[in-house]
Specification:
By secondary structure, the chain is α/β, with parallel strands linked by helices. About 55% of the residues lie in helices and about 10% in strands. It starts with a strand and ends in a 21-residue tail after the last helix. Belongs to the CpsC/CapA family.
C-alpha cells in the first residue's frame, strides 16, 4: 500500500509527494522504531567516546584559564590598575623609616671548657649543661619591668615615646645558632633611634650583672635551708634501725631467715635422736624388770659370774666326790658348807647388780626427759621466732625504705646545691656588647623597587582572583569546552556568531542567508578555499557540519524527524531549525519545517512566510494539508507548516490524536521533518512531541543560556525518556571557539561542484537521488560538502 500526500502550493500547482522506497506502508504506532532504540554498535561507541571526552574535560586546564583571562581582561586590568595606583601613591607618600641595632654576647664562647674541671669534681653526678632559653630571654627583655623605666626616662626628652611605642618598634632575635642577641629599633628619627638603643644596651648589661642571678640564688638558699632537716631525718632513721637490730638480734631479713631455718632443722634432728634414746632407755628399764633383762644384766656382772663359776665348781666336785664318798662324809659336808656359803653371796651379788642396773636405767630416763624438756623449749622459741619473722621483716623493710628515701632526698639536694652553685658561677659572667649602637643613615623604607615589584605581583594575583570570582558568579557557558563538560552530551555542531542574525526580525539578513545557500563563488582549485571569513559563510558551513553530524548518528536507518528545542527563549532554536532545513534541502532532501511553538511562533518570520493558517488551524478545524503547508521561496524541496493562530490551550492540541496522525503522515511524505518547539523549561509541549520523533536537538546560546536552567532541562528530558541526539552551541564567538576554528575554511572544489549540480537538478526538476549518494554510503570518512 502506498500513501500519497497531495496539496496545492502557493502557485496553485498540485504537488504530489510519495514516500521513499524503503517505506512501503505506514506502520502502526506501536511498531514504529525510533533511531535511538536501534542504533548500531558504531554510533553507540561514538556516543560513548563523546561522553568520555566530556568527562575528561571537566577540570580547568590551561586553555580554559587563558580563555577566562581573555574574557575578563578588562576586570583584571581594572583591579591591577587600582592596586598599582594605590601601591605607588602609598610608596611615594610614605615617611622614611630608619633602623639601628646592636649585638650582645649573652654566653661565653668557651663556657664548657672553663668549667670542665668543676664537672669532674662532682664525679659521676655530672653537671647540668648550661643552655640559655633564648625565646624566654627575649620575652624577658621585652617585659615592662625592663622597658618601662627606659620609656619613663626618655619621655622627658621625647614625649611621644611610651612603653607601647618601644615595644612595637623593638625587635630582639637570636643571630642564627650563635650565642648573640641582635637588638633592632626602627623609627623616623635617626638621633632618637641611637639614644633609645644606647639606653637599651645599658639596661640590658645592668640586668645581666645584677638581676639575672635572682632565681639561682633563691634556689641555692632554699636547698641550703632544707639540708639540715634532711640530715636530721636520716640520722633519726639510722638510730631507729640500729636499736631495732640490737633489740631483736636482727641483721638482715635474709640472714635472719637463714638462721631460723638452720636452727629449725637442727632441732628436728636432735628431737629424732632424743626420741630414739628415750625409747631405748625405757625398753632397757622394762627389760630389767623381767627375767630376760635380769639374766642379761647378770651376764655382764663379773663378780656374779665369778661366784657363779665358783658355785658350779663346788657342785662339780661334790658330784665327783659322791661317786667315791657317801653323802655323810666329811669331804661331802665340807663341799656342802662351801656351797651354802656361796649361795647367799651369789644372791646378794645378783640383787646388787640388778639394783645398780635399774638405777642406771632410771637415771638415764630422767636425763633424757630433762633433755627433751629443754629441746621442747628451744623448739617453742624457734616456732615463735618464725611467727614473728614477717612482722620483724616488715618493720625492718619500712625503716630501710625510709632511710633510702631520706638518703636519696639528701643526696639529690646536695647534688642540686652543687649544680646550682656551678651554674651560678657560669652565668655570673656578664654580657658583652660586641657591636655598639650607631646612628642609622640609610632608610630601610620605603623601597621603591621592592614596593613596585610587590605591587605588580599583588595586582596580578588580585586581578586573577577577581576574574575567577566573576567567573564563578557567572552562571552561563562561555566556551564550547565548558558546555561539553557541563552537559555531558554529544556536541553536534558549533554555530559561530552571525552579525546578520543578531536581530532575528531583520528580514534582510534572512534574505542574505537564503542566497548564501546557493554558492555563487567559483572555486579556485589552486587555493582550495571557497568562502571568505565573513560571519555568514562561517555560519553556513557550520550548519552544514551540523546537518552532516545528525545524519551520521544512524547509518542503518536515516533520521526522518527531529525536534529542535532550547532551554530558554532567545537561544536561536528557530534560526537553527530554518537554516538546518535549508541545508538539508540543498543536500537533496525533501524537508518540512513544522512550527509546534503555538505560544510564540518564530518560524514564519525566519522563513518569511505568512502565518495566516497553520498547525493549530489544521488540528482544530480539520483542514486539508494543502491549505496549511506552504512552499518556501522558489525551492521545490523545502516546505513549512507554520503555527497558525495561537490557541487558548496549545498543550491540548499537541496531545491530540490528530497531531499524532499528522506526524506519521509527515514522516511518510518527507525525507526530513524538523519540529521547532517552544523552550523546554516549564512547558510540557516538548515532552508530547519529542516522544514521537527520532530525537531531540537541544540548542544553547554561548554566553547567554543559564547553566542551572540547562541542567534542569536535560534532567527533565531524561525523565521524559525523550531520545536526545545531542547539543548545538549557538552564537560561538571567535574567542570561545577553542579548537573549533575550521569554519574559516571553505568547501573543496568537489563539494562545491556537487552542491551546484544538486541545486541545478532541483531547479530543472531532476530527481536528486540520481546524483546524491545513497544513505548507506554516508560515513565519517567519505563525507564531502
Amino acid at each position: 500500500m502506498t500513501v500519497h500526500c497531495s496539496f496545492y502550493s502557493s502557485g496553485d500547482r498540485m504537488e504530489t509527494f510519495q514516500p521513499t522506497p524503503f517505506l512501503p506502508s505506514l506502520p502502526a504506532e506501536n511498531e514504529r522504531q525510533r533511531v535511538p532504540a536501534s542504533m548500531a554498535a558504531e554510533p553507540a561507541s561514538v556516543l560513548a567516546a563523546w561522553q568520555l571526552q566530556a568527562e575528561q574535560a571537566e577540570d580547568l586546564d590551561l586553555r580554559n584559564l587563558l580563555n577566562i583571562v581573555r574574557r575578563r581582561a578588562w576586570a583584571i586590568a581594572g583591579v591591577a590598575a587600582v592596586v598599582m595606583g594605590l601601591t605607588t601613591v602609598k610608596t611615594l607618600h610614605q615617611e622614611p623609616v630608619y633602623e639601628g641595632d646592636f649585638r650582645v654576647l649573652v654566653e661565653p664562647v668557651n663556657a664548657e671548657d672553663d668549667f670542665s674541671n668543676l664537672s669532674a669534681l662532682v664525679g659521676e653526678q655530672g653537671v647540668r649543661q648550661s643552655g640559655l632559653d633564648y625565646e624566654t630571654q627575649v620575652q624577658v627583655l621585652r617585659s615592662p619591668e625592663l622597658l618601662r623605666p627606659i620609656a619613663d626616662k626618655l619621655q622627658q626628652t621625647y614625649p611621644d615615646v611610651s612603653y607601647q611605642s618601644l615595644l612595637s618598634n623593638l625587635q630582639i632575635s637570636r643571630l642564627g645558632e650563635t650565642k648573640i642577641l641582635e637588638v633592632k629599633y626602627a623609627g623616623t628619627d635617626p638621633v632618637q633611634i641611637q639614644i633609645i638603643l644606647d639606653a637599651l644596651s645599658q639596661t640590658y648589661l645592668k640586668y645581666s650583672l645584677e638581676e639575672r642571678q635572682t632565681n639561682l640564688r633563691q634556689g641555692i638558699n632554699f636547698v641550703e635551708g632544707q639540708l639540715p632537716s634532711l640530715q636530721a631525718q636520716v640520722d633519726s632513721i639510722q638510730d631507729q634501725l640500729e636499736l631495732f637490730r640490737q633489740q631483736y638480734n636482727f641483721i638482715t631479713p635474709e640472714v635472719q631467715s637463714t638462721q631460723l631455718s638452720q636452727r629449725t632443722t637442727g632441732l628436728s634432728e636432735q628431737r629424732l635422736s632424743l626420741d630414739r634414746q628415750m625409747s631405748g632407755a625405757e625398753q632397757d628399764f622394762l627389760n630389767l624388770q623381767g627375767q630376760t633383762g635380769t639374766l642379761a644384766s647378770l651376764d655382764d656382772a663379773p663378780v656374779y659370774q665369778q661366784l657363779l663359776t665358783e658355785l658350779r665348781s663346788v657342785e662339780t666336785k661334790m658330784a665327783e666326790e659322791l661317786t667315791r664318798f657317801s653323802p655323810e662324809s666329811l669331804a661331802i659336808r665340807v663341799l656342802e658348807e662351801r656351797r651354802a656359803n656361796i649361795l647367799p653371796l651369789l644372791q646378794q651379788e645378783a640383787q646388787r647388780v640388778l639394783g645398780t642396773q635399774q638405777a642406771i636405767a632410771a637415771n638415764n630416763l630422767k636425763t633424757l626427759a630433762a633433755q627433751s624438756q629443754t629441746l621442747s623449749q628451744a623448739e617453742q622459741e624457734t616456732t615463735q621466732g618464725l611467727g614473728e619473722l614477717p612482722t620483724l621483716i616488715r618493720q625492718y623493710t619500712d625503716l630501710q625504705r625510709e632511710l633510702e628515701v631520706a638518703t636519696a632526698a639528701l643526696t639529690r639536694f646536695r647534688m642540686t646545691q652543687e649544680n646550682l652553685t656551678i651554674e651560678a658561677a657560669q652565668t655570673e659572667i656578664p654580657w658583652q656588647l660586641i657591636e655598639v649602637p650607631t646612628q642609622p643613615t640609610t632608610p630601610i623604607s620605603p623601597n621603591l623597587r621592592r614596593s613596585l615589584l610587590m605591587g605588580v605581583v599583588a595586582s596580578i594575583l588580585l586581578g586573577l582572583g577577581a576574574a575567577l570570582l566573576l567567573e564563578k558568579l557567572d552562571n552561563v557557558y562561555h566556551t564550547v569546552d565548558e558546555l561539553k563538560a557541563g552537559t555531558k552530551l554529544p556536541l553536534l555542531g558549533t554555530l559561530p556568531y552571525n552579525e546578520s542574525l543578531e536581530d532575528s526580525a531583520k528580514k534582510s539578513a534572512i534574505a542574505r542567508l537564503i542566497k548564501g545557500f546557493r554558492p555563487s563563488q567559483r572555486i579556485d582549485k589552486r587555493s582550495g578555499y571557497g568562502y571568505d571569513a565573513s560571519s555568514e559563510s562561517r555560519f553556513l558551513e557550520a550548519t552544514r557540519v551540523l546537518h552532516t553530524n545528525i545524519r551520521m548518528l544512524s547509518s542503518d536507518r536515516p533520521i526522518r524527524s527531529i525536534l529542535v528545542s532550547s532551554a530558554l527563549p532567545g537561544d536561536g532554536k528557530s534560526t537553527v531549525s530554518a537554516n538546518l532545513a535549508k541545508v538539508a534541502t540543498a543536500m537533496g532532501q525533501r524537508v518540512l519545517v513544522v512550527d509546534v511553538d503555538l505560544r510564540k511562533p518564530q518560524v514564519h518570520l525566519r522563513l518569511e512566510v505568512p502565518n495566516d493558517c497553520g498547525l493549530s488551524n489544521l488540528i482544530a478545524n480539520d483542514l486539508p494539508l494543502k491549505s496549511a503547508i506552504q512552499q518556501v521561496g522558489t525551492s521545490e524541496q523545502l516546505f513549512v507548516l507554520t503555527a497558525g493562530q495561537i490557541p487558548p490551550d496549545p498543550t491540548k492540541l499537541l496531545a491530540s490524536k490528530k497531531m499524532q496522525q499528522l506526524m506519521e503522515t509527515f514522516e511518510c511524505c518527507f525525507d526530513l521533518v524538523i519540529y521547532d518547539s517552544p523552550p523546554t523549561t516549564g512547558l510540557a509541549d516538548v515532552s508530547l512531541i519529542g516522544q514521537r520523533t527520532d530525537g531531540l536537538v537541544l540548542v544553547t546560546h554561548i554566553g547567554k543560556t543559564d547553566r542551572t536552567v540547562l541542567s534542569q532541562t536535560i534532567e527533565t528530558l531524561k525523565l521524559a525518556q525523550i531520545p536526545m541526539l545531542g547539543i548545538v552551541a549557538n552564537g560561538v564567538r571567535a574567542t570561545a571557539m577553542s579548537g573549533y576554528r575550521y569554519y574559516d575554511y571553505g568547501q573543496s572544489a568537489t563539494a562545491t561542484q556537487l552542491s551546484a549540480e544538486g541545486e541545478q537538478a532541483v531547479d530543472d526538476g531532476i530527481d536528486l537521488t540520481a546524483i546524491q549518494t545513497t544513505e548507506s554510503s554516508f560515513s565519517r570518512n567519505n563525507l564531502n560538502f
